[in-house]
Amino acid sequence: MIKNYYKIPRAFDIFGNIALVKFDKKTSVKDKKHFANNILRNNKAIKTVLEKIGKFKGRLRKQETRWIAGEKTKEALYRENGCVFRFNIDSTYFSPRLSNERKEIADAIRKGEEVLVMFAGVGAYSIVIAKNSKAKMVYSNEINKEANKYGRLNIELNKVKGKIVFLDGDIKRIAKKIVKTHPSTQKKVVNVENTRSLKFNNGSIKDIPSKFDVIVMPRPQLKDSFLKQAFMLSKKGTRIYYYDFCKQDEINQIVEKIKKEAVKVKKKIKILNVKKAGEIAPYKYRIRVDFKVL
Asked: Up-side HSE of residue 100: CA atoms within 13 Å toward CB?
């Protein structure tokens, strides 16, 4: 029996076959084991229980976990929105709490639009959009090599090969390369043959657009907004879905930051929507700001 109930978490995250629990520091190993075994007994789909022992770090958004009970694995198989994702809990980033966000954005994509997803991780946003919308093509950008490896696997698992192009690497470098290739045009495309330094998964895809109809930015908690790169790759009519993190009384500051960045690059924008996309800590929220380039 667990003696110190106040130390036991009220909830935990489920990544398909893996439950991830954040315990109080004072919780004993015995109590952790007891709680973990209860999870396994009461949830047949869960095969492994891990303990979260570190926060997500840096732009690669890696975390540290510890095995508590069940099968000794850190590779998850997770399903949502008619899609399936395989990934490593420690070496790649994935949030099941963003499932509704991914579907909401996929529903907003119009037929024939070309979509860029920055900070795509293992391809969650990219694949949900590709599978649940009539987008012409989805371009998936991620700097984490391990995440890109899983992203390619997930494309195969979801049978969306030919609908997604990977743009591996730093979006700052990629954006500069695209602009350098087309410094004076809004309409031409970047030919893959001229961008060999960028690891594009070409397949039957021959060209990369220089501007996108939609840009999705589920960015990590970093000081850099990456709005400069988004504006570089936008055109008149481009819709941008920008994520940030702040307290309740700082939401207006996020909106003002976006407006200031637009002014710097001489872009006019219209704010379409501002919403809370989840509470990430007490009184701290993930914010999504939808805006359009005029």
From this structure: 6
